[in-house]
Each structure stands twice: as structure tokens, then as C-alpha cells.
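Q: Could you fold this chain for me?
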Amino acid sequence: MRWLSKSTKRLLAEMSAGIIFYNLVLIVLSFLLLPKVSYPVIPVVLGLIAGAAGAICMLIHMAVTTERVLDSGSENYANKYTVAQSMLRKLVFVAVLLICWKVL
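A: Sure. Below is the predicted structure, expressed as C-alpha cells.
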């Protein structure tokens, strides 16, 4: 089984580029605007970078999940697998948030 089709890889690249571009705009704006209101810039930039990385990872996982259930051809398997993978994504997201909260 191949991981992703050519069209899905292209779509992932385009969406990832959009996420990166959007976050770069926000980073530039944070460097320009936050010092004027005496707010620390570095934590905001690190949060934007971590959020972009998380968004791209979740996007890739959703694409792999979608390709797998499309290849299966079974509606029952697709329903169960999609729900299970969605719950796994949410569990990992909450775990990472809790770990970051503990560390910081």
C-alpha cells in the first residue's frame, strides 16, 4: 500500500505552504506590533511555530487516514477507523498540551 496518492501529496504541499505563509505573516506582525504594547515577542513566535508544526502534522495524519479508508472500500471499516484515528489525534493533541503546560 502506498501512503499517499500524487494528488494528495500535492494538496498537502499546498496546504502546508498556506499554513507556513499565514504563520510567517503573523510572526512578522508580532515583531512589528507586540513591542509597541510591551508584550514579549519570543513566546508568541514559539507558539506560532509550534502551532504550525502541529497543524501540519495533524493535516498529514488526516490525509493518511483518508487514503487508507478510501483504499479499503469498506464502509464499516472506514467509519470505525476514521473515528478511532480522530480520537487518537485528539488524545495526542491534549497530551502534548498538558506536557507543554507542565514544562512551562
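A (continued): The CA atoms of residues 27 and 53 lie 14 Å apart.
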